Amino acid sequence: MIKYLRMIAMISIFAIAAGCQMNQSTSASSAKAANAEMDRDAKAALQSLYTKTPQARALAQRAKGILVFPDVLKAGLIAGAHHGEGELIENGKVTGYYATTAASYGLQAGVQRFGYVMFFMTYSAMNDLKNVNGFEVGVGPSIVVVDSGMAKSMTTSTAQSDVYAFIFDQKGLMAGLGLQGSKITKLSR
């Protein structure tokens, strides 16, 4: 039975990985179209977050950079993985495109889509993201994952951490959701 569950888990991880690679193209016009679509998706995701959590807008005004992942897919059965692509916004302009990827093993089951936004509050945290090949969540600058209860009491004067992350628009059913262990890498497009 365990052997069967491991096999199903590995198949689901490979399916996610294959699905993430299926839509990649090398032509310049395809890259421009993908970037334009990412820009639209990121703006819509930020607007959705700001509507549901007005405190996030206040953080955005003080942030040195905003990393937006509008659509992340997570799936697993014993072993799991998540992957999504997003963009870094500095001073209102897109300065780079990034991917978030993680693998996990443990008691988990399901499939879920979600978005997340990371507000980089210090230049030091921004440098960690931009200058390290493979920024790992949970290693380096302090990151606070903000839930709806914390967001209600948060003000710009109480926000003292390097990075704040908001997870939003969860769809699907997945036992457990977190960012610890996620690896964020810069995309060359």
Number of strands: 6
Multimeric state of these chains?
single chain
User: How far from one another are the termini?
Assistant: 44 Å
| Overall residue-averaged pLDDT value | 80
Q: Tell me the number of structural domains.
A: 1
The value of Rg in angstroms is 17 Å
Shape, principal axes of CA atoms: globular
Low-confidence stretches: 149-158
- Residue share in β-strands: 35-45%
Helical amount: 25-40%
**Biggest sheet details:** 6 strands, mixed
The helix tally amounts to 5
Helix/sheet category:
alpha+beta
Order of secondary-structure elements: HHHEEHEEHEE
Structural features, described:
- The protein is of the alpha+beta class and 189 residues long.
- The chain has one domain (2-187).
- Helix content is 37%, strand content 41%.
- It is built from five helices and six strands; from the N terminus they run αααββαββαββ.
- It has helices at 2-21, 28-52, 54-62, 123-131, 148-153; strands at 65-90, 93-120, 135-136, 143-146, 163-174, 183-187.
- Strands 1, 2, 3, 4, 5 and 6 form a six-stranded mixed sheet that branches.
- β4 (143-146), α5 and β5 form a beta-alpha-beta unit.
- α2 (28-52) crosses α3.
- It is globular, with a radius of gyration of 17 Å.
Based on the model shown, name its key terms.
single chain; 189 residues; alpha+beta; six-stranded mixed β-sheet; 5 helices; 6 strands; 37% helix
Concise summary:
By secondary structure, this protein is of the alpha+beta class. It contains 5 helices and 6 strands.
